[in-house]
Structure formats: C-alpha cells, structure tokens
Amino acid sequence: MVGVTDTDSKQTDPYLWLEEVTGDDALAWVRKHNDPTVADLGGERFEQMRADALEVLDTDARIPYVRRRGAHLYNFWRDATNPKGLWRRTTLESYLTEKPAWDVIIDVDELARADGQNWVWAGADVIEPDHSLALISLSRGGSDAAVVREFDMRTREFVTGGFELSEAKSQVSWEDADTLLVGTDFGEGSLTESGYPRLVKRWRRGQPLAEAETVFSGSESDVVVAGSRDRTDGFERTLVSRALDFFNEQVYELRDGELIRIDTPTDASISIHRQWLLIELRTDWSYRFQNYPAGSLLAADYEEFLDGRGEVQVVFTPDAHTCLHHYAWTRDRLVVVTLADVASRVQVYTPGTWTAEPVADLPQNTNTTIAAADPLGDEIFLDSSGFDTPSRLLHGTAGGPLSEIKQAPSFFDSADLEVSQYFATSDDGTRVPYFVVGHRHRQGPGPTLLGGYGGFEVARTPGYDGVLGRLWLARGGTYVLANIRGGGEYGPTWHTQAMREGRHLVAEDFASVARDLAARGITTVEQLGAQGGSNGGLLMGIMLTKYPELFGALVCSVPLLDMKRFHLLLAGASWVAEYGDPDNPDDWAFISEYSPYQNISADRRYPPVLITTSTRDDRVHPGHARKMTAALEAAGHPVRYYENIEGGHAGASDNPQIAFRSALIYEFLHRTLNGN
Hints:
One of its GO terms (molecular function) is serine-type endopeptidase activity. By secondary structure, the protein is an alpha+beta fold.
C-alpha cells in the first residue's frame, strides 16, 4: 500500500507537504504536473473543443434566468464580453420580448479592474421590501470565503463607511436598514471547527464590528450558526439556528430577547411562510400518537405549533417509487416537485386544505424544476429540459395557466439520440436506476461516459448539457447517469442507508451499473469511462482502487481522497455526519476499507486517470488531489494532473476556465476510450 500507513498520518504521510496550499514547493509541484498534462492533451481537437464549449457557455441565446424583487426581474449574466459578469435587471414586459432591455447595476469586470482584484460574483442580499440597499458578496478567485460590501441601489454605488466585512465564510441578513445580523470571523473562538461562524451578532450602522452585540452562540463542534430576519409585512420574525452536524439543526425564534425553540426533529428541514410551518422529515417521526414516515412533508399553523397545541397535516407522503424533490412558496400557494422513478411531476397545493392540482401543459419527457417563485405574489417560473431537449422556460401563476416564454437553443444535433432508463441490480439486490443517452443507429458497443455522485441526499436528474452534448455526444459518445444510493432520487432513505458504515453501498451501486452496461452490450470495459467531482470525486477514487477492472478511464475532480484527514482540512469537519469520524477507531474501521489514498496498490492494474482540482478551492482541500497523484505515481500508475490556480470548488471561476477544463477532460476521454 502507498499513502498513510497508520493512524498517525502526520508522521507517516510522505506527501503531507502538498497540503500547504500556496507553499512554494507545493506550487512548484503543481506547475511541474500541469505543464505536461496541458502539453500532452493539447492539439487541434482540444482547441476545437475548447472553442465549442466556450461558444455554448457564452452564447447570448441562453435563457437569462431571473428572480423577482419588487417591480423588477434580476439576473446575473456572463458572456464573452463580460467574463466576470453583469448583475442586471429588467421589467416583466421587457423580459417577455425577444431582446429584453437590461439595466446593468454592477459590472463585475469593471469593478475587478477598478479594485485590482480577481472578483468572482458570490451573490446579493437585497433588503425587502423597498430594495433600496444590498449586501454584495465578492470572492477572490471563486473561493467560498468572500468579502461583503454594502451597496446603495438608488445611487448605484458602494456605501462609503457602510457595512463591510473582510474575507470570510460569512452569514449576513438585514434586520432593518440600519442593522445586520452577522456571523463572520470575529477573531479567536468565533468560528466552528468547520471554519464557519459560531456566533450571531447584531451590528448597528456606525458601530465598530468589534462592539456588535452577541445574540446567539453555538459550539465549536457545530457546523455553522446563522441568523436571519423575515421582513414579510405582518409576519416579521428573527430566526437563529445552529447546525449540530450536516444533517441536524436546532432552530429558534428570537422574540423580545427570548429564544423559542421550534421543536421539530433536528434532522427535519423546516420552512416558515407567513402563518405556515412546513416540516420535511428525513427519518420517521411519531407526533401526538401519529406516525409519519421519512420523506413526508407536513404542515402546521406556526403559532399554534410553537404553543404546543397545533396539529400537523400531511401535505405529501412518499411511496416506493415517488419522493419529494423540492418546493417553493408563492404568497398563497405551495408549488411542489416530486420524482417518480426519477421523472418529475409538478403540483400546486392550497394551504389549509392542502389539496393538490397538477400543473397542466408541461412539456413531455422532460425534467421540470422551479426556476423561481415570488413569495410576495403568485408568479412562478418553471424550467423544463431533458438530456436531448434544450430548456424551455414557462411563466404564469401558481394554480393558473402557464405559457412558454423562452427557449434555449440546441447546441448539438440530437436527431440520432435516444434516452432509455434501465435498472441494475446491486450486490444486496437493490434495483438501481440509470439513464442512457445513446445513438439510435449504433451497432455494437461504443465509448461511454458514466456519471454519478451518491451523497448528501443530492438527486441527479435528467437535464440538457450543451457542453457534454457538443464535446461527447455529438462526437459519437454515449452518456450514462447513475442514480445510486447516497443521493435523494428516492427520498431520504435512499441516502441514509448509504451514510457512514453504509458507504460501501454507493460504490457497489455504481459498480453494478458499470457491469450492467457491459452486460447489455452498450459498452465494453475498455470503452467505459466514469467522471465525478467532490463527493463524486471520492467515488471515482474508490472505483480506481477497488474496481479498476471495470473501467477504461476515470476523471476525478475536486475530490475527497484522503479520508483519514478529510475532517482536518478546510470544511471537512462538517462532513463527519456523512462519512464518520476517522479519529474514532470504530468509524475508521469502515472508512479505512474504502479511503482511496490509503488503498493504493502497486500490484493491481489501474486504468488511466485524470485528476483535476483548484488551488482556490476552500471547501475540499486541493491536498487530496495532489497527494493522491503523488502516491499513484510512486506506485507506478498512469495519472494526469491539472490544477486551476483559481476557480474555487467549481474548479473554474469564469467561462473561459470552464471551457478549458472541459476540453481537457473530453480530450483525455476521447484519447483513452476511443484510442485516438
């Protein structure tokens, strides 16, 4: 074995120095690996694919997705002229035209030039309901940590002497025009072990940040503590919360200086809208002599529930095939998207009776999501797309008629493509669904790319991807999406059974899909590649070290790989609930069975692998990718490596970087799986 050989990784890890993110030696190692990868994978086809990808990413024909704030629809937009982006707005009347008239509020490219900083847009918190002020978050190079600066929407200028926070993973909310609820890096002891705020303070205009009043505090072992203010007229509330771990949270209302616990299960997700409390269960719950299964969505009168006298009503109950995917409020309706064997359905519920009406006239054979909903009105935007069907944006009212108002262009010829759904059988007999986007007239197996994630209850659903289409499908490749356990495709139990000691199920499911593809003659081992990022990058590391005989190539992006030290690096402590605690011998017993960095063998044949990451990723430490590459090389395995100096956890911070990285990946796959 190569890598960590006993529990004291600091003493035994020969590549620990690669965890020095910006250390001179570490960055020299990065450049030494980047240069040959780019030189080797470069060439005419690479340049053509990079240009194709950039055309998809930059085209003005994309749908500009919006959210309503008062009388205006807001959008953030990147293109070839504005690679860092424009924050802009328009009216509905103009938006419905073919070429809306956009009012640019902030030009991030211009701001970056003026400030001499590589700003990446990280969002805006605009005060409700008058939209006069905003808190603008800007990240250097795409990291999660950002600076926050107050912006006057009336003058279009940053407020001199206004609210401003230094770079941190801050949590901020407007309490009123002169007061913020702030969680940030206040100094020693103010952050959790995961690197997020541990304190919520009330910061008044003109007051030094150091003098802000603490209104709520959590433990260093919490993941994050946050505060927010609901400014809905007649339903004003201040809420504070502490995430005990990634999946458990305590939420309180701060009322007249008193903390009132909203006594729902800590692992349930809650939503408070006007007088309603929604409770989404992750595990079974017994309440007032009634049993409610995991995956249910329940509703209660908020004030009555706080008083302990409220009954809960069932909004949605899952079954073996159907689960809750996501929902959004308008003022008087609840819009709900469910998945039935990973196919979406949309319904509108009326609060109180909780009767549901299906949304009519949705495009057939597409996946539909809620693009935006106005919590102060009745407006909704729905987006429908499929693997071979570009997005269509529908607009209307919740419970009323919808009309198609925008359609994205086709970026590749899909006439020869067909989408099928199959089920593989995992090692324990579980049926695992997967989609195949293949070529209708292909005779025999062909080069195939398999994607998967399998973690944190994230559901992977069908959707249009112009870059994948142009760089892979249009060039003869087949694409497969595996809906493995660990995700949320069948609700919370699809995830919870694959947590901690059940983690092996994720890999077994993915391997079963790989075998099924070969058994059906869709591909062969030599022609099968797989790709995953972040938690999906961990999955690729496990495929490499545990199932190398199933693949012809692997792409492993911004990955977790050293599971002995993941909890010590950046935000890693927040994921202990998902994976287990490596410092607990009982947990390490099952983590050590799959941790890729600890399971590299010099005696097995591994398929070629491309590992990519970002220096500026302050969520998943780039040391994972660096050390894995070094250990693989030491064991004599073929590995290519590329690290973007910018990009954050997304691996790229603007469209040119995304296009470059995409071309690099698909060039590697074409060469390896197509043999050319």
